[in-house]
Design goal:
- By secondary structure, this protein is an alpha/beta fold.
- It folds into two domains: 44-293, 3-Layer(aba) Sandwich (Rossmann fold); 311-458, 3-Layer(aba) Sandwich (glycerate kinase, domain 1), CATH 3.40.1480.10.
- Helices cover 37% and strands 20% of the residues.
- It contains 16 helices and 15 strands.
- The chain has a six-stranded parallel beta sheet with strand order 6-5-4-7-8-9, sandwiched between helices.
- Helix 3 (84-95) links the parallel strand 4 (74-80) and strand 5.
- The longest helix has 17 residues, at 324-340.
């Protein structure tokens, strides 16, 4: 398995408490070690290799289930998501020539060399390439025979990368609805409830379309609670949401959407369109679904790395949500409170989850960068606290950054670089702030996607 070189930016000279000689590494390099450990533990390719083992003709899964491969005439692979190409590489390496073909769709710059059809497309707002990739995926699934095994690989981003507008809808309709809900900071389960009811592939419809006699789904979860129907909009699992739910989401956020979208959802509500397959559908008798990596894997590994570096590690939450700026300020205040208690040794506080950003300005940034900016304002002038906020997929919002750092000197450094932090927060321009402060984290694609990790070091 190739070694991924993550670049977290420079380790600024910020020594830990000199009274603790065992802690010679800088605070920033300690954070970098923790982030690397999180990525290694939740890496999509490694997770698939650990979870799937081949014993002769039996594919043994970590869930305790096994499949006898000799029972299938052909094996096909399909998948979508930012971490799906390395998952596909692991499966091809494991199964070899048993895999006769497949279609994998990922975000721009997230592809790897594969002996399969690889599509790159836009995320988070879909484009025509994602629509073509989804059409090709559905074509392959429909062509599978009852004697075939179809393996579906999912990771975060699949909802946008598989753009399959339902009958009577256009790609432009999906783009407008997706962009509107993202700008309104709609939670992912609400966003996906709408997308599932505008799609020919989401909400269990890929499983319904498949002609294969057996379907296995392996997922890397970027959803709090690892809900299968929300991960990638649940193309291969029962959908508990309805057309009524989708309409309710649009009404709740008071979105202006194309009339065609309203007509489509209302037709579904009145029975004029088929509802997504629910739990009672007999098609689920031939499907299996397992999560191979999630946020808890990343947080546990990060905590272990910090413990090995001499910190007392405390995982405070795996459900960090809400506005990014509010979450960043709260994290900073909690860290300052712990530091104020006068700990006898360094303490690491860890959170995981996925916040949202309500777009108010014209700047650039992402939820992790905005958390770091808000944390920096709270930490201004303080000492002994360093915070890092990081997207595990390596891309935070529509930028090339993964997140950012914040410490007591971030605001001073940013102002010296010509960026006022309050203006940056008002304009959602956390990217400019972190760049000026020297606090931007840029890793490039990481090969996984399990939500976000935030760590505060108190020393």
């Amino acid at each position: 398995m190739p070694v991924v070189d993550y670049h977290f930016g420079p380790s600024l000279p910020e020594p830990l408490d000199a009274r603790q000689p065992a802690y010679r590494m800088t605070a920033r390099s300690a954070l970098q070690r923790a982030f690397r450990a999180a990525l290694d533990a939740a890496g999509a390719e490694g997770a698939v290799r650990r979870f799937c083992q081949l014993d002769g003709e039996r594919l043994e899964l970590g869930s305790g289930e096994s499949l006898t491969l000799s029972e299938f005439e052909r094996i096909w692979l399909v998948g979508a998501g930012k971490a799906t190409p390395p998952m596909a590489r692991a499966m091809v390496d494991l199964l070899g020539t048993r895999v006769v073909g497949g279609v994998v769709t990922t975000k721009d710059r997230h592809g790897v060399a594969l002996p399969l059809d690889l599509w790159e497309a836009r995320h988070p707002v879909p484009d025509v390439r994602g629509m073509a990739a989804a059409a090709e995926t559905l074509r392959l699934a429909r062509s599978a025979a009852p004697s075939d095994l179809l393996i579906c690989l999912l990771s975060g981003g699949a909802s946008a990368l598989w753009a399959a507008p339902d009958q009577g809808l256009s790609l432009g309709d999906l783009q407008r609805v997706t962009d509107g809900l993202l700008r309104a900071a709609a939670p992912i389960d609400e966003l996906n409830a709408v997308r599932k009811h505008l799609s020919r592939i989401a909400g269990g419809r890929l499983a319904r379309a498949s002609g294969a006699g057996r379907m296995l789904t392996l997922a890397v979860s970027d959803v709090l609670g690892d809900k299968p129907d929300v991960i990638g909009s649940g193309p291969t699992v029962p959908d508990p949401t309805t057309f009524a739910d989708a309409l309710s989401v649009l009404e709740c956020h008071d979105l202006e959407v194309p009339p065609s979208v309203v007509r489509h959802l209302q037709a579904g509500l009145s029975g004029g369109r088929s509802e997504t397959p629910g739990p009672e559908d007999p098609l689920w008798e031939r499907t299996s679904y397992v999560v191979v990596a999630s946020l808890s894997d990343a947080l546990s590994a990060a905590a272990d790395a910090l413990t090995a570096s001499g910190f007392e590690s405390r995982i405070l939450s795996t459900g960090l949500t809400g506005e990014a700026r509010a979450a960043g300020a709260t994290i900073a205040r909690q860290a300052l409170a712990v530091k104020g208690d006068g700990p006898k040794h360094p303490i690491a506080l860890l959170w995981g989850g996925e916040t949202t950003v309500t777009v108010r300005g014209e700047g650039r940034g992402g939820r992790n960068q905005e958390m770091a900016l808000a944390a920096a304002l709270e930490l201004e002038g303080s000492a002994g606290v360093l915070i890092g906020c990081f997207a595990t997929d390596g891309t935070d919002g529509p930028t090339d950054a993964a997140g950012g750092y914040a410490d007591g000197g971030s605001v001073v450094r940013a102002r010296a670089g010509g960026v006022d932090p309050h203006w940056a927060l008002d304009q959602n321009d956390s990217y400019a702030f972190l760049t000026a402060a020297g606090d931007l984290v840029c890793t490039g694609p990481t090969g996984t996607n399990v939500n976000d990790v935030a760590i505060a070091l108190c020393f």
